[in-house]
Amino acid sequence: MNTRKLVVIGGDAAGMTAASKIRREQPEREIIVFERGNHTSYSACGMPYYIGGQVESEEQLIARKPEVFRKKQHIDVRIRHEVIEIDPKNKRVKVRNLDEEKEFWEPWDDLLIATGASPIVPNMENIEASGIFALSTLQSGMDVFNFLKEKKPAKAVIVGGGYIGMEMAEAFLSRSMDVTLIDMAPQLMATLDKDMADLILEYMTEQQVKVFLKEKLVKFEKNSGGSIKSVITDKQTIPADIVILGMGVKPNAELAARAGIKLGASDAIQVNKRLETSEPHIWAAGDCAESFHLVTQKQVHIALGTVANKHGLVAGINISGGNAEFPGVLGTAITKFKELEISRTGLSEKEAKELGVEYEAKTITSVSPAGYYIGSEKIHVKLVVNKQTQRILGGQIVGFKGAAKRIDTIATAISAGLTAQQMVDLDLAYAPPFSGVWDPVQIAARKFI
Amino acid sequence: MNTRKLVVIGGDAAGMTAASKIRREQPEREIIVFERGNHTSYSACGMPYYIGGQVESEEQLIARKPEVFRKKQHIDVRIRHEVIEIDPKNKRVKVRNLDEEKEFWEPWDDLLIATGASPIVPNMENIEASGIFALSTLQSGMDVFNFLKEKKPAKAVIVGGGYIGMEMAEAFLSRSMDVTLIDMAPQLMATLDKDMADLILEYMTEQQVKVFLKEKLVKFEKNSGGSIKSVITDKQTIPADIVILGMGVKPNAELAARAGIKLGASDAIQVNKRLETSEPHIWAAGDCAESFHLVTQKQVHIALGTVANKHGLVAGINISGGNAEFPGVLGTAITKFKELEISRTGLSEKEAKELGVEYEAKTITSVSPAGYYIGSEKIHVKLVVNKQTQRILGGQIVGFKGAAKRIDTIATAISAGLTAQQMVDLDLAYAPPFSGVWDPVQIAARKFI
User: Fold this and answer.
1) Is the pTM of this model over 0.80?
2) B400 → chain A, closest CA residue
3) Best label site of A277, A347, B201, B444, fewest CB within 10 Å?
4) pLDDT at B266 > cutoff 90
5) Is the CB of B58 inside 8 Å of chain A's CB atoms?
C-alpha cells in the first residue's frame, strides 16, 4: 500500500485526469486537490458554444463535480482553495481558503502542479471597464453568457483572430450581433500560413464579420457608468458593447517559479518526458507545462485540452509508480467558423522556414463530397514535406462539411514518419458522399511525386 | 521515343488512368483503348446517388468522354468495341465492332487488360423478367433511372445486403418507395462483423426498410407482360415492381484465362506487384485483377474504385518504362445508409479468426460531436489488435455525421504498423463540434492498454 500523500494544484483536465488515474491504481492513497475556482473538470473548449447556444447549459460542460470526486472516488477536492506558495524543501504548500480568508500549510509526499494557463490581458487604459472579457475559467464563460442575457449588447469587438476569435465571432453572429474582429498580425490564425488564413478571411468577410488586420489595440474608452464604450486602435475607434480578448494564453507558472522550479519553453514549467519538474517529487501537467514537439524535437508550450488530458494520464501513471512517457505533440488543432472548418498539424511553412528545414510546400484545392454529389464544396489542403527525406512535416486544411477532421490522417502519417509517396499509397476510404476517389489529402501528397 | 504500340482493353478507371499516365510520360506513343460499352471513365460508385437524385444527371458521372481522350490526349478510344480474343503468342487481340458487327485483329507490343468486374447474376427462373437489374456499367444505371421514371414502381426488392444494397435502399426510400431487402447471410454487410452489422440492421428497420436475413432467393415470378411480379425466397413470396441484384461481383477474367493467362485469388487475373501477368508484356489492372493485402500478406480480389485507380497508375508507370509497385490494400471501404455512416478497414474479427491470428477485439460506443454539443450522436468503433505485437489489424465504424471517415486514421495506423498504444499517443484534432477530447478511435485503442 502506497501511503505517500499526494497534493494536486488545479482541478481541471490535467489535474483530475491524473488524480483519477492514481485513484484507480492506488485505491488507498490520500489525494487532495486544491482548486481556486468554483468548478472541476469542465470543458473550457465548449464555452464559446455554450455562449453561442449550441450547448444547453453550463452544467453540461462539467464532466464531473467536486462532490462526485469526493463521494465516488474518495478524492478530497477542495474548491475555492488557492495554493499561494510551494515549499519544496519542507514538502508542503501554503493554501488560502478563499471563502474563509484563512491560510494553512498542507504537507505532501508527491506534488502535481496543474495550474493551467490564463488569457493574456493587456495592461491598458480602461481595461477594467465592464463588458471586457477574456475566456478562462467556466465562471468567465458564465459571466459572458449572463452579460449577453442581461445587457443584450448589439456590437461585439473581438481582439485576436485565433481559435477563440473564430469561435466567439460565430457565437456572436448566432445571436444576430454586429461583429468586428481586429488583429495586429497581417493574417488571421497565426498557427496557419497566410495563404490558408486568407481563405478564412474571405469567408468571414462574406459572413459579415468586419475584420481589420495589421491593426493594433491601443486602449479602451468607457461610458460614465463604467461600461465599455469603444475600442481604440492605432487606426480607428470602434464602438463596442462587449469586448472579447482572444490574445493568446500564458502558462500559470509563477507559483512554480517562485519555488525555484525551472521554467522552460515560453515560460511554461520545464518537464521531462515523464512530466517530472526540476525538483524531486514535483510533477507538472497540462497548460502550465511544456511539451515535446515530435517534428521540431524541441520543447514547446501548447495549451490544448487533448494535451492536458494526455499529460494528466502520463503524470498519473508515473505518480502511481508506473512508467509512462508523454508521446509528444504535433500542435494538431481544429476549429470551425460557421460552416467553414479549419485544421492544422505539424509544421506550417512559416515554421519550417524559421527552423531552417529544407522543405517543399504545396497546396491543392479539391472537393468534398465528390464533385457531382449535391452539396459538394471546395476543400483546400496544404502539405509541408521535408525536401531530403520526403517525409511529411505538416498539414493544413480549410474546407466545409467533413473537411477538417481529415487532419488526423496527416497527423498519423507525420507521427509514423510517412513520406508523401507512402501517403499516396494509403488505402483510404472512398464513396461519393464523402470524397472523390482520391481523398484530398492524397491529392495533395501526389503533388510531391 | 518509345514506338511500342499499346492496346488497353477496357475504358474505365484502371484502363484510362493507365492510358493517361502513359500519354503524359510518352507523348508520341500509339495508344488504342477498346471499350465494349458506350462510356469511358465514369463513376460506377456514383450510380446509386444518381438514381436516388443526389446527382443531377448521368453526364455528371462521366469524368472524361471518349472524344476528349481522343482530341486532348491523342488516345485512340474506341467505344462499342469488344475484345473477344487475346493472342499472346502473336501479340494481337481480336476485336468485334459491336455496331458494324465486324471483327478484326489488332496487333500490340504491350497489352493492358482492364476489363473490370461484373455483378453476379444467378441462373434462375425468370431472371430475364423486365424490372430486374444489376448495377454494372453506366448504361445499367441509366436503365434503372429510366425504368423508375417511366414505370414509377412502388415496391422494390433488393437482393443482397452489401454496399449496393445499402445505397440502393437509400435511393429507393428517397423516392418514397416501399423497400424490402433480403440476404441469405445471418447479417448485413458481410465485410463487417455481426455485432457492427446489427447496428445497421436496427437503423434500417427504424427507417422502414423490411429486412429479411437468412433468407435465400429461389426464383422470380413475372407478369404475363414479362415484367417482374414477385421475388420468391425459401420462406415467402415478396411482391416486387423492381428488383436490384446486389449479390457481389466477379472479375471479368475469362478472356485472359482463355488466352492462358494465369488466374489467382477469387479467379481474378494473377499479377505481381508491378501488375504484370503470367505472360510477358501483358499487364492487368483494376477490378479484373488481384491485389496484395497488407495485413494478410496474401493476394485478394477487391473491386473498388480506389484500388482500380491506384492499379491504373502503377501499371501506367511501369508500361511507360518506370518502376512502381502496387502498395497493397487493406480493404478499406465506406458507405452510408441515410444518416448512418459505415466504414471498415483491415481485418474484421471474423477474418482474424479464420486466418488463425491471435487477436483481441474490442468495441466502444462514444459520441460525436462532444456529448454536450447539439446533434451529438452515438458512434461505435471496433478495433482488432494482434495479441502478441499489439499492432492494429483492423477497424470498423458505425455512426452518424462525420463518423465513418475516421476509418482513414485507422487505415493509416495499420499501414504504418502502429500499436494500440501508439494510436492512443497520436496527437489527433479535437474541438467540441467534432468530438470529445479523446477521439473515438483513441477511446477504442485505450481499451487495449
Assistant:
1) yes
2) A402
3) B201
4) no
5) no
